[in-house]
Write a structure and sequence with these properties.
This protein is an alpha/beta fold. The protein contains 16 helices and 18 strands. Helix 4 packs antiparallel against helix 5 (about 120-135).
Length: about 500
């Protein structure tokens, strides 16, 4: 007999089938010298009194400048045997400058002081003195209650496909309502940078201590230091799994690492060839932080929320894929295995682990979006328990443990009040290691810091909310972040579904 979980997934597949037609290396190494030097050039100018870099706002306007034909590389590594010692010194200084630009002055000072000859090198000593001066200009951010948390779903690379005639009307409506285009995302990030926003981690909101019984306790972080005029925000993205149903609809297909260990994505062209480039949030943020390292606090990038039923990060890692005859596979998954007769599950899992580690090494974090994208507030407890077991057995071994739960469908297991001690669902997830909980809330700020958990509301930046902001400007959904009239992609069909005009 099928479980409720399997019945729902099959029902979902049947709905998708009626709505649309069926549409038919890697190792982790350090950044290249040229990448680091290029990214840090503007910072060195800033530290020597120039403009930009660590000033309060950006000095470039318009979209993030990225090439859709690039494979994500910013430069080529110099062969180690041809790199003269002077270049090694330049590289070390550039990396320290980049670290300082991300407001981690203590680490930058440590890096420079560890360089050979520091005690007699006046240039290095002056560099440290400059870091000390900049560090002294930082001020603590004490208002954690006014830290906004924004999130996106998958980004649309090709609007002509996502909104085209080959996509069934209901599917197109879903893309229009819930997704964001690359052009919109670029403009949003540029606007937020110009306004002084800086990406932090959800974990930066608090300090973790222990009580007299050895239990973990959360208190507001008083050590988040930023320059005057800068303000922190949290960035996350849901469903970073590249689901089968999106194939051929103008979305990227898989997260990979380039030859320098940097995250990028693959995209399948109409002729079947695979290209890599800045077609999704991860590589776009990587490119933007390369150009504007002061957009990232201590190297933070964002939170990627994952399910597991279709695998993770574009890799078909769920154990059901090992057997094409598994009764638990839905037709999308069976078709994938038929289209890929040489599929090797063990290699797929191994590759996913490498990419997951590469993402973490580059400042990204993971969150559970539950294995089966289920409702955490209304699903029966036995279903929550079974789903969590699958998460722990099928996803955690690939990405590592996480203490962040991002609610699918935005469905919390409590209202805005503090979770009560007798909340069965809260207690269940706490027992399974979750301490940070994120729902969906259109308000600018919703942050709760209690001794035993942290909760934030997330603002959905998508077609629905942006169009609603245009139709109802009095709502001021995004006035603190960007001008929606400048951002809204003209390729979107209007009116966007769900918005009451």
């Amino acid at each position: 007999m099928e479980t409720m979980d399997e019945q729902e997934r099959r029902a979902e597949w049947r709905r998708r089938k009626l709505r649309r037609e069926r549409r038919k290396k890697i190792s982790i190494i350090a950044f290249s010298v040229i990448v680091i030097v290029g990214a840090a050039a503007a910072i060195i100018v800033s530290l020597n009194g120039g403009k930009g870099g660590m000033s309060g706002s950006g000095n470039k306007k318009g979209n993030v400048q990225v090439s859709e034909n690039t494979n994500g590389n910013v430069g080529e590594s110099q062969p180690e045997e041809t790199t003269p010692p002077a270049d090694a010194r330049t590289s070390a200084i550039a990396l320290a400058n980049r670290t300082a630009a991300m407001y981690d002055y203590d680490k930058a000072i440590e890096m420079v002081k560890a360089m050979e000859g520091y005690d007699s090198d006046s240039e290095l000593q002056q560099l440290v003195a400059g870091y000390e001066t900049k560090k002294g200009e930082l001020v603590p951010w004490t208002d954690m209650a006014s830290v906004t948390h924004i999130f996106f779903h998958s980004l649309i690379k090709d609007t002509s496909k996502a909104f085209g005639d080959k996509v069934a009307a209901n599917e197109k409506d879903g893309y229009n309502e819930y997704m964001t285009t690359i052009d919109e995302f670029n403009k949003i990030m540029q606007s937020m940078y110009d306004k002084g926003y800086v990406i932090i981690s959800l974990h930066d909101l608090v300090k973790e201590t222990t009580d007299e019984n050895g239990n973990k306790v959360f208190v507001q972080n008083d050590a988040l230091m930023l320059p005057p005029g800068k303000r922190p925000f949290i960035l996350s993205q849901d469903d970073v799994c590249f689901y089968h149903y999106m194939d051929g609809d103008g979305f990227a297909t898989k997260l990979v690492l380039d030859e320098n260990g940097r995250p990028t994505v693959e995209y399948k062209e109409d002729d079947g060839t695979i290209t890599t480039g800045n077609y999704e949030m991860v590589p776009l943020i990587e490119a933007f932080v390369d150009e504007h390292p002061d957009f990232s606090y201590h190297g933070r990038k964002g939170i990627l929320a994952l399910t597991g039923y279709d695998g993770v990060l574009g890799y078909r890692t769920d154990p059901e894929y090992k057997d094409i005859n598994s009764p638990h596979l839905v037709e999308d998954q069976v078709q994938f295995l038929k289209d890929n007769p040489n599929f090797n599950w063990d290699e797929e899992v191994a590759q996913a682990k490498i990419v997951a580690q590469g993402l973490k090494d580059n400042g990204w974090e993971f969150a559970s979006h539950t294995w089966g994208h289920i409702h955490c507030g209304s699903s029966p407890m036995d279903r929550l328990q079974a789903d969590t077991q699958k998460w722990e057995e099928r996803v955690v071994p690939i990405i590592g443990a996480t203490d962040i739960l991002i609610f699918p469908h935005g469905e919390d297991f409590g209202d805005w009040h503090q979770y009560s001690s007798d909340n069965e669902r809260f207690n269940f997830f706490k027992q399974h290691g979750f301490n940070y909980f994120c729902n969906v809330d259109g308000a600018k700020y919703f942050v709760q810091i209690f001794g035993n958990y942290v909760r934030t509301g997330r603002r959905n930046v998508d077609g629905y909310r942006m169009y609603d902001a245009i139709v109802h400007p009095e709502s001021e959904w995004f006035t603190d972040l960007f001008d929606v009239n400048d951002v809204f992609d003209k390729a979107r069909p209007v009116p966007v579904p769900g918005v009451v005009i």
